[in-house]
Specification:
Bound molecules: adenosine-5'-diphosphate, magnesium ion
Order of helices and strands of chain B: HHEHHEEEEEHEEEEEEEHEHEHHHH
Distance between the termini of chain B: 35 Å
Protein name (chain A): Putative ABC transport system ATP-binding protein
Oligomer: heterodimer
Largest sheet of chain A: 6 strands, mixed
Number of strands of chain B: 15
Transmembrane segments (chain B): 21-40, 318-338, 368-387, 393-416
Helix content of chain A: 25-40%
Number of strands of chain A: 10
Distance between the termini of chain A: 20 Å
Strand order of the largest sheet of chain A: 6-7-8-3-9-10
Helix content of chain B: 40-55%
Keywords (chain B): Membrane, Transmembrane, Transmembrane helix
Number of helices of chain B: 11
Shape of chain B: elongated
Protein name (chain B): MacB-like core domain-containing protein
CATH architecture of chain A: 3-Layer(aba) Sandwich
Strand content of chain B: 15-25%
Organism (chain A): Ruminococcus albus
Largest sheet of chain B: 13 strands, mixed
Chain lengths: 224, 429
């Protein structure tokens, strides 16, 4: 489903230049649970940014279901993020002055009306995640674990094929982190493709494949 | 979806209510000033046109006196009143002839003692140094205000109309015993005085009470020969050229002062001068030094030159102030706008993740700017309309608003691109 060939990304110019990704080759199949680990600064987030259609790499090709994402213009790239990618990040990526409900329905606003997403559907998702009572609360009124559930609810409602998670448990205590991991695993069992960045060795073992990175390169891929 | 973008734009404004209010007020202020400046320029153009129409065929000659010491002493302090009556009869003949128009126009300042007057009304203000108020003889502060004394024909000759209240009647040109002098005020006095109000002060060292009879229009000008300039009447007090039959020292000085003025004639200098001298001889003052000056005669062209030079200078200065103000306000507004956008980095970042294109994020913030501009535009236009500014001025403001909106949308675009939303997750750690 996803195929990266020879992807390179660098930031800055001349002396300030950092090569964040160097010739990355990677293929990911539908329904996989991939974990990416490695030291801080090795390029994990940059790789997620490429996969999510947020930055366009300097060179290489990125095929998503056969389409060349690198060739997408601003509009089409936005539609790609909207339809195909869900994001769960360390700091939750919620808009603070909008309610939980407004936050989770945000992706729907950038699409034509979708009849399959009803009020009941939204309530049942929130209920499953245990945050139905928070529907009309604002993010600053929620705990870290609840905020992360809201971000996950947003992915479920917008029903994207792929979920990109960047240190989803990084800002949470251990117990809450485990609960979030369990939710992600459940989603994977229901067929979502999940790509999760973590520098926690234990968590990195929970996927179906472990990708180890160092200095912008993939140094090892371990099947579990 | 476009409705959603507009809603988001409004949300930004609601979140930054304080900045929004400040920006709206500033923009409102600027638009109003812009409209008023355009309107004022138009009025001065109109006045200029009217002036051309009125004075296209006119030639002004100065009248003045330079009495010898002896004649002067006799006139002012002599025991009898023959000299006084002779001069009076000469001036009456000048005023009443139908061959030309004589306008008496002198400028003795009033020294107001009853209340402080704003600096703009004081003598010397236009030259940049208004005279300081001084302690008067009765321990009251004296404010030296600009004032002119005019005869009846002044109003027709200089096309000065009374916009509020009423002009001087025949009786107003005769000094009363009740110590009250009727006055007309320039348009700048409108906020400070109403018709019927009185104030007190010295006119040629004599105390009087002055009663406001009316206001002259804001397009009223007179020609000041002291500096060869057309002067707007807006900050002047206009007194009638007063006659007092008492023939006392005060009445005599006042009368002599009325020799200063203009003759507006279309029959040429030689003929006019001949008639002027004949009237002098008839009145028995043929040997007094009273002049009709050819040198310095103002033809309509040179008057017009001065006139347009004066108005363009005023509008240039005014224009400069307006431009500086607009620049200042624009800078403040652009800075507020950018800081408002900066504070929305989180919001825009999340929207970007959820599928907003750069274009829709820019539209969203542009909506906020457009709202601010429309709000201030509507209020400024309504105020301009209420203040009777011309439709043209208001339309030009709309044009400016369109330009400002386009410009701010471009600023939004550039700034949001510059914000690097793609560093929203990750970025430098
Ligand atoms: N926007 C940016 N500008 C400049 N350098 C950046 C930027 N984002 C990341 N980097 C650099 O690129 C390298 C990889 O960063 P990142 O992908 O965030 O690493 P990780 O997520 O593995 O910690 C780091 O050296 C980082 O400093
Ligand atoms: Mg990272």
């Amino acid at each position: 489903m996803i195929s990266l060939k020879n992807i390179s990304v660098s930031y800055g110019k001349k002396e300030a230049r950092t090569d964040a990704l160097k010739n990355i080759d990677l293929t990911i199949n539908k329904g996989e649970f991939i974990t990416i680990s490695g030291k801080s600064g090795c390029g994990k987030t940059t790789l997620l940014n490429v996969l999510g259609g947020i930055i366009t790499p300097d060179s290489g090709s990125y095929l998503f279901q056969g389409e060349d994402v690198n060739k997408f213009a601003d509009n089409k790239l936005a539609r790609f993020r909207n339809r195909c990618i869900g994001f769960v990040v360390q700091h939750f990526a919620l808009i603070n002055d909008r309610t939980v409900y407004e936050n989770i329905t945000l992706p729907l606003k950038y699409r034509k009306k979708d009849a399959s997403v009803t009020g009941e559907k939204i309530d049942s998702v929130l209920n499953e995640l245990g945050i139905l009572s928070k529907k009309n609360k604002y993010p600053f009124q929620l705990s870290g674990g609840e905020k992360q559930r809201v971000a996950i609810a947003r992915c479920i409602i917008s029903n994207t094929e792929v979920i990109l998670a960047d240190e989803p448990t990084g800002a949470l205590d251990e117990e809450t982190g485990h609960k979030i991991m369990a939710i992600l695993k459940q989603l994977n069992e229901k067929g979502k493709t999940i790509i999760m960045v973590t520098h926690d060795v234990e968590l990195s073992k929970s996927g179906s494949r472990r990708i180890i990175m160092k200095d912008g390169e993939i140094v090892d891929i371990i099947d579990s | 979806m476009s409705l959603f973008i507009i809603k988001n734009g409004i949300k930004i404004l609601r979140k930054h209510l304080f900045q929004t209010v400040i920006m709206t007020l500033l923009a409102f202020f600027c638009l109003y000033i812009l409209g008023a400046a355009i309107g004022a320029k138009e009025t001065s153009h109109k006045a200029e046109k009217k002036y051309t129409e009125t004075y296209g065929e006119m030639t002004l000659y100065y009248t003045s006196e330079g009495l010898s010491e002896l004649t002067y002493q006799n006139f002012c302090n002599g025991a009898g009143r023959e000299d006084f009556d002779k001069l009076h009869s000469f001036l009456e003949k000048l005023k009443n002839t139908d061959r030309f128009d004589f306008v008496s126009l002198s400028s003795q300042n009033l020294e107001v003692t009853s209340q402080p007057f704003d600096e703009q009304f004081l003598y010397g203000y236009e030259e940049g140094k208004a005279v300081e108020p001084q302690m008067g003889p009765d321990d009251k502060m004296m404010y030296e205000t600009k004032s002119i004394q005019v005869s009846q024909k002044f109003f027709d000759t200089f096309s000065v109309s009374v916009s509020e209240g009423s002009g001087f009647d025949k009786g107003d040109y005769i000094l009363n015993d009740d110590g009250e002098i009727p006055v007309l005020l320039g348009s700048a006095y409108k906020g400070s005085f109403s018709i019927g109000d009185t104030f007190e002060g010295y006119y040629m060292c004599e105390p009087f009470r002055y009663r406001v009879k009316g206001f002259v229009g804001n397009d009223a000008f007179f020609f000041n020969r002291a500096n060869n300039k057309m002067i707007s009447c807006e900050r002047y007090i206009i007194l009638p050229a007063l006659y007092s039959d008492k023939a006392d020292n005060f009445a005599r000085i006042m009368l002599l002062d009325q020799v200063f003025g203009f003759i507006n004639s279309s029959i040429g200098y030689e003929v006019t001068k001949q008639m002027f001298d004949d009237l002098r001889t008839e009145s028995g003052i043929g040997n007094w030094n009273i002049f009709l000056n050819y040198k310095g005669a103002m033809t309509s062209e040179s008057v017009l030159d001065k006139y347009s030079a004066m108005t363009s200078e005023v509008s240039k200065q005014f224009g400069l102030i307006v431009v500086i103000m607009l620049c200042f306000a624009s800078i403040v507004n652009i800075i507020s706008l950018c800081s408002m956008l900066r504070e929305n980095f989180q919001t825009f970042g999340v929207e970007m993740l959820c599928g907003a294109s750069l274009k829709s994020i820019i539209s969203e913030s542009s909506t906020a700017v457009i709202m601010i501009m429309l709000l201030s535009d509507i209020s400024a236009s309504l105020l301009l309309l209420a203040m009777n500014y011309s439709v043209k001025a208001i339309l030009l403001v709309q044009l400016a608003v369109t330009g400002i909106i386009l410009f701010s949308c471009i600023i939004c675009g550039i700034y949001i691109k510059h914000m690097n939303l793609n560093t929203y997750i990750g970025g430098k750690e």
